[in-house]
Amino acid sequence: MATKSKNTEEDFLKDGPWDELYVITQHWKSDLEFYKDDLRFLHHLIDKYLIWITKKENLDLVGKTKSNLFELKVKSKDLLEKLHKHMIQLGYLVEDSNRSDAGVIKTEHEHLEEEIANFVKLFRTNRKEVFNITEYIIDSEELTSVMET
Asked: Mean pLDDT, 10 residues at a time, over the chain (149 residues)?
């Protein structure tokens, strides 16, 4: 059984669907660029309501959220750079699948997949938090009356 598993892995490394992994990586890159734009919107949303905040606890809450968004922005930039490098490596494998670093690139792809999934989870959590905080601040600062006039 171990021999069959090893042969399957060797076949993948030799004839792996490198072009498919390249396309998947392009999708990840596109998604991250969308999230990057969405992060810019979330920063704008927070900044828009920041000027109306008078309560210290709300300022602290927004400060923590802004910090989390900044960390996400840095993480998205880092992931985009990693994806760019990975796409170049995959491109070389599409051209020549007999490269000696194919196993390393496959492992790197798996790690990137995990990093992207973790980023998306964190992004969604923070996005939801921004909207919850915005709603809370509008209510607690009594901004609904200011916004309607």
From this structure: 47 65 95 96 86 80 91 97 95 82 88 97 95 82 56
Q: 90: buried, middle or exposed (CB in 10 Å: 19+, 13-18, 0-12)? A: buried
Distance CA 64, CA 61 (A): 5
User: Which tokens go with 98?
Assistant: 């007999």
**Residue 67, in any domain of the structure:** yes
What is the rounded distance in angstroms from the CA atom of residue 42 to the CA atom of residue 48? 10
Burial (CB < 10 A; 0-12, 13-18, 19+), residue 83, is buried
Assign residue 124 the CATH number of its domain. Answer: 1.20.120
| Burial of 101 per CB tally in 10 Å (0-12, 13-18, 19+) | exposed
pTM of the model: 0.79
Residue 62 φ/ψ, nearest 5 degrees: -70, -40
Structure tokens at 136: 């809370």
Cβ pair 102, 114 in contact under 8 A: no
Is 123 inside a domain boundary?
yes
For residue 53, the enclosing domain spans: 19-142
